[in-house]
Design goal:
Blueprint lengths: L1 E2 L4 E8 L2 E5 L1 E5 L3 E10 L4 E10 L2 E10 L2
């Protein structure tokens, strides 16, 4: 991850699986690649992270947030 400014970082990802969220979570073997954008909210230790890319099965996206201690 490379910091763009105090609150935003950008990076790349490469993974050899796709996560399938139908019923029970499972993984399928697929090559996926793309960019990661992470926004830190410095006043309350929260973050929001987006992964956007392409894979063998088409478009790949994930949005996740969290709290840092």
């Amino acid at each position: 991850m490379q910091k763009v400014n105090q609150d935003i970082s950008i990076g790349a990802y490469l993974k050899n699986f796709s996560q399938i969220n139908l019923g029970l979570d499972s993984r399928a073997s697929n090559l996926n690649y793309g960019i990661i954008v992470k926004q830190n909210f410095s006043n309350n230790n929260r973050y929001l992270e987006a992964q956007i890319g392409m894979g063998e099965k088409g478009f790949d996206a994930r949005l996740q947030g969290g709290l840092q201690f």
